[in-house]
Design a protein that fits this description.
36% helix, Alpha-Beta Plaits, Aminopeptidase, 4-stranded antiparallel sheet, 448 residues, 2 domains, globular, alpha+beta, homodimer, 20% strand, 14 helices, 19 strands
Amino acid sequence: MLGYQKVLAHLRRNKREHLKLLQRLVAQPSISAQNEGVRECAELLVNIMEGLGIPAQTYETEGHPVVYGEIGEGDFTVLFYGHYDVQPPEPLEAWDSPPFKPTVRKGRLYGRGTGDNKGQLLSHLLAVHSYLQVLGEIPIKIKFVFEGEEESGSPYLADFVSEHKELLQADLAYTSDGPLHESGAPAVYYGVRGMLGLEISLETASWDNHSGNKGGVIPNAAWELVKILSSMKDENGRVRVAGFYEQVREPSTKDLELIENLEYHPWQIAKNFGVKKIEMEKEDFYRRLTLEPTMSINGLTSGYQGKGTKTIIPARASAKLDCRLVADQDPEMVFAAIKHHVEKMNPDAEVVMQGYMHPSRTDPALPVSEKILKAAQTASGKKPVALPAMGGSLPDYVWTKILGVPSIIVPYANADEANHAPNENLDLECFYQGIEISARAMYELSKK
Amino acid sequence: MLGYQKVLAHLRRNKREHLKLLQRLVAQPSISAQNEGVRECAELLVNIMEGLGIPAQTYETEGHPVVYGEIGEGDFTVLFYGHYDVQPPEPLEAWDSPPFKPTVRKGRLYGRGTGDNKGQLLSHLLAVHSYLQVLGEIPIKIKFVFEGEEESGSPYLADFVSEHKELLQADLAYTSDGPLHESGAPAVYYGVRGMLGLEISLETASWDNHSGNKGGVIPNAAWELVKILSSMKDENGRVRVAGFYEQVREPSTKDLELIENLEYHPWQIAKNFGVKKIEMEKEDFYRRLTLEPTMSINGLTSGYQGKGTKTIIPARASAKLDCRLVADQDPEMVFAAIKHHVEKMNPDAEVVMQGYMHPSRTDPALPVSEKILKAAQTASGKKPVALPAMGGSLPDYVWTKILGVPSIIVPYANADEANHAPNENLDLECFYQGIEISARAMYELSKK
């Protein structure tokens, strides 16, 4: 404990240097979707790691390189995952300061990638650095995997993990990405929902016809699409595609206990989500958000979309959908079920997959989970909000399914980090607190 | 008959001059929607009419002027309706010759407004001119009403007719607009369907939410819209809005007789409409196209419409619809029924009217109808295709409902005139044939 207290003191003395290092990392663009600066950023990150005393190197993939590093010795190995690539900064004119010129205003650092995810991955590195500075060693074995295309859907991360299972073997995967709970308390997630993107499109004629001269005797692509879509859900919003729910895992007692322990303020949530009201009970709300799959239309297109009317019978219509999947749903099986349903409704409809990510779950009853909760609570002074899974998706399955290790997600950014949006920012208090959580987690995990 | 034969000979001798005059009229842009050249075109048209020996003048309306002329004496008065305004010519780059530089290629005159409607309204004027040249008089009384904003929905025509009922009093309204039957035979219509345009829109949240972080617990505007729309039709495409069909007039024996007499080649129709097949029986096909109302989606918009996926829960969704209405449906009553239905389905939905036009019907058993059919058949050498109504809409109700006179529609343009599209054209044989039909109709109508 004495050693850890010294590390903590060192961390607190070096805030200025930590901020400087983050600014250096953010100043390097690394936009994976636009292939801008990604390799340069990988090299900068290796450089920074080496400077902090952590041996590191890049690994080539079919896409952008993975930055890998490892350090320490001990019975317990934790693998920290993060990503050094960022979202495109557009629209540029909406930023109050340039996205790659990180600027401090009112206790926050503004810049693309500050919160998502450079500030968070750097927290782990800075915690290690303080251990090395103060104690000359760290109490556990640590591996770092920082990928360069999370914002593009992590297309080659699974391959990388499959090909380097021995190198990456660990007792726990630890991811800091996303925000703290809205209340400011730390959040801890034991999994993520998966994702399946698809598009349904229809062509009912070779061209848009005149709605008067042809109206009543030929099919309308927009109506046909509405017919297909409305067949896919019942009036309560439950998916009617045969087999859709078949592989959904029943919540465990521990899952339901986590939900039972949560605070619940539906009016506050409604305000944060921009909706009039939320009328569900707590268990229903959190089960739907974390333990149940969704089928969401994210885009509808047909016919005329300008002002006024254009009296046509649209020849084409399409709907983009995404499904959030939960353990143990298999995205390809779900896709096949949807495709089958749609084609049965209308043999002319085309269903195209736009990519997927597997869901992932880790048992919250795992002993190591208490250590992470303790680290988060001690460093933040607040009781963590622990949830069975995130509603969103991360490539967490590469750890739980491919590597076969438990995985816990502990986000460090402020709830209003505006990631993926203009004026992305990281509250510096969250940044410094993240470093302390990482340091404390290393300490807790080193204990027998 | 001798007099008419001389008129016919005169018409046939003067084709070159007729074409020149049409070119002059088409060369003057008159785009009502863009307010370009409309007044200049009205003045040019008055000028042309005076040059042909027909006293004419403009009448101001709240919109673009009406060109009015009258000539002749007799027991029977026919009112010819047409419009001198044209559709916008965009996209300009798709034209093979400039839209307002009328050009003859392979027996057709290309230019915006050639068929819709300048060539057709000019046919009546040129027929009168030949009577005047050959006989010094015409055998009936003729009135001309050429409006300047048909392509903008004829917003002030009803007012003009209401305010000038005495001036316009006639025994028959006669409109040449639209194309001949696909077979090349003349078409004769005893009415039109009306039109009601509306938009349904929904806002379920103040912003688009993340489909992972919020998915499952808040409404999705696209799904809510699909739910509303799917409630509006049954699985056979029949409208389920209470009251929608209430005012629909039962077809008369004569209506059904007209349909019974039509030829029907569903495979040919399918090809012309760009659809795979048409599987209805003849009566069903023509009843649906002319005697039954439609409810058509002409535009659907929600969420993300670019490439790939954007994992959002759309906050907004909208559908544009148009209904083709038949006698005796009242557009305002139909709109109220739809609005009531939608708001019952979802009290947050907004339903906005985008304008309407009343349906119109004339009794096909009317004695004068035989004279028009005879004129069309004699001048074209082909048996006219007579239909109870057009599938499309024209402001025909101003004659049948406001002025209270029967109205017959006899289009003169080729079926592939490409009106409202680039490379609009008028087949010169159709143009010359139209002049002969008008001349013959004047002759037939003059007979007791």
